[in-house]
Amino acid sequence: MRQTRRFVLVSIGCVSGLPLMLAAGFGFCTDTRVDGTAAKLRALVADAPAACALGRSYRARFPEEEKQAVLTGLLCSSLGLGVRGIAAQDTDALLSRLDSRVREDFSCGDTVQVNGWVLARTEARLCALCK
Amino acid sequence: MFVDARTLPQRFVIDADVCIIGAGAAGITLARDLSSGNRKIALFESGNFDFDADTQKLYAGEVVQQAYIPLDRDRLRYLGGSTNHWQGSCRPFDALDLADWPFGPEVLEPYYSRARDVCQLGPDSFDPADWSTAEARPLELGQGSRLKSGVFQYSPPTRFGTVYRNDLATAAGVTVYLNANLVQIDSNESASVVTGVEIACLNGKRGRARAKNYILAAGGIENARLLLNADRVQKAGLGNAFDLVGRNFMDHPFVPAVATIFADDASPEMRFYDQHVVRSRIVEGYFCASDEVRRREKLPPFAIGIRSANAGIDAGVGNIKLPAVLRNLLSDSLDRKVAYYLPRILDRLETPVTWLYNKMWRKPPGRFVTVYSCGPDPDPQSRVTLIDDVDALGMRMCRLAWRLPADFEQSMHRAHELLAQELGRSGIGRLRIESSSATGYDPMQNLGNGSHHMGTTRMHNDPHRGVVDADCRIHGISNLFIAGSAVFPSYACDDPTLTIVALALRLSDHLKSSIS
Questions:
Q1: Do both B394 and B505 map to the same domain?
Q2: Counting beta carbons within 10 angstroms of the beta carbon of residue B362, is it exposed (0 to 12), middle (13 to 18) or buried (19 or more)?
Q3: DSSP symbols for B68-134
Q4: Is the dihedral of CA B498, B502, B507, B512 positive or negative?
Q5: Interface residue A32 vs chain B (CB under 8 A)
């Protein structure tokens, strides 16, 4: 459990801009809860060039998910949260939800190979949000 | 009793009840088990007590298609045979492994029980849970998992020629003829009964052995070669009426470092799948497909083991490359190969995800590599044939064409994908499949073979589909039997030695009852 959460932590590091992307996609850029979530996430990982590299590979392989709005929508859906819901989660709760989702992806075989890595679909999409 | 055949008179004649060719795991097991005051057992061994280069050269042959360890280096030709370089891995075949055999596990089980003693194994358990400790435990795979865990037990390993040498010297009715090579098998005109075998020594001595029953126990390649060379009556070779002798050859392809796993270095689950000691016994866990997934996805039986890659570069090369290093030593190209590996191992430390892990975990993650082996379906085009070149005794040498299935890599990747999913689901770690396109490293460059020669005289009740019947008797020949992994109709993913010994014990029981 601890390790998966840490890995998700790594993955989510690539989405330090997640709330802003969400805002761009859904028009909630003034939502302070989203900004707050962004701050927490940025504090977790300030820089994630490696995850961005994985994200670029993912987007190249799945061009239909190139747009941030599409990716964000898919992530919100898989996490079972709307943008406001994500913003409302504290870091632990969000990580816990991500952890569950990632495990579920692995469990049901919803994985994708990115640069050789076998990643849960959800964590791969998180990487893909990083630009 | 041991007799050096080179000291026998020219044109010697030996009479026995049972004549066994080859003193490896199967031949020695048969001789010991058949030993009795009422039976004369003649066991012929090409070599001596120790390695001899001239004798070893009799194994030379040609390799085509898939790269393979040279045939005179892949096997050993002296008392004990290839058990002299056996690593000792053991596991009995299960019901699914034996699906294509003429009998099920219930037939083999009593012989496995005896074979475990012969191979000097520990407790009678191959259940991973029985070998679980706080330091090394199997991954909890849960209900509906696509993978399951297994465990190999390691023999010390038993060097049959050393461990059982004294037994052979004192066994009632047993005479071991050293430096004695079978060069011809004679039969009646209809090739339905073997009437004798010709024996030759490298010093020029020749003779003949006659027995009621004959057993070829010379190994999965050599048994086929002996039958194909016995062409006086049946031009295609003895027992080869349906062109099956030598076909369906298989070895276990072995691929090191197929994938890299990043996980906690102290993880007991990672340790379980490498060799480790439990209660003074060496065991090694492995991952394989669940029966349901194996059937549904038509995956070959496979085993994935895990090796630490954190013990330093030198050890890393050793861990990752052991079979290839052996092969390269033999082909005198070690320097070139090491030069290839070192920079790639270093490169891998710089991969993006590693960098991320280091950054977030504040310490280097445990780094492991997988080792993969499998037992693909039999392939008639994977075969042993003869070439026109002859050895020092005038026997035609053999050509080995080992062919892997077209979907070999695909199956290997799928197996690793399943493993990655289990590691991710359980939170143990993440796995990266190596490939020239994704990571710049192609594991297939290091494809090796397990030196497990199987299938060339496969067992089947139908003579059109197998060379020997369920009693290991060659179809159509009343008194010629095959012992060893040459009779395996399918291969599982395990070292064959335990099953070779079990089958030899079963054949021994059959012969005892038929002789009596």
A1: no
A2: exposed
A3: ---TTTSS--STTGGGGG---EE----TTTTTTSSS-HHHHHHHHHHHHHHTT--SS---GGGG--S
A4: positive
A5: no
- Boundary-marking domain end, from B449, B468, B487: B449
Burial bucket for residue B336 (CB in 10 Å: 0-12, 13-18, 19+): exposed
* Residue B75 and residue B202 in one domain: yes
Find the CATH number of the domain harbouring B184: 3.50.50.60
Q: Hey, what are B185's tokens?
A: 């098998």
Number of Cβ atoms within 10 Å of the Cβ of B514: 13
What is the ipTM, given to two decimal places? Answer: 0.81
Q: Which domain holds residue B150?
A: 123-156+250-449
Provide the Cα torsion A72, A76, A81, A87; round to 10°.
Answer: -30
Q: Are B427 and A45 a contacting pair at CB < 8 A? A: no
Chain B: residues touching A (Cβ < 8 Å): 146, 263-264, 351-353, 355-357, 359-361, 416-417, 420-425, 427-435, 438-439
A53 touches chain B (CB under 8 A): yes
Residue-wise pLDDT for A106-118, tens only, equals: 999 999 999 899 9
Q: State chain B's mean pLDDT as an integer.
A: 89
8 Å CB contact between A80 and A97:
yes
Chain A residue with minimum CA distance to B366: A3
Contact A49 B357 (CB under 8 A): no
Extract the residue ranges of chain B whose pLDDT is less than 50: 311-362
Of the candidates B352, B420, B425, the beta carbon closest to that of A54 is on: B352
Taking 70 as the threshold, does the pLDDT of residue A88 lie above it?
yes
Contact list, A113 vs chain B (CB under 8 Å): 417, 433, 438
Tell whether A49 lies on the interface with B, counting CB pairs under 8 A: yes
Nearest Cα of chain B lies from the Cα of A18 at a distance, in angstroms, of 18
Please check whether residues B395 and B498 belong to one and the same domain.
no
Provide the token pair at B31: 């001789």
Tell me, yes or no, whether B222 and B303 share the same domain.
no
Domain boundary residue, one of B427, B449, B471: B449
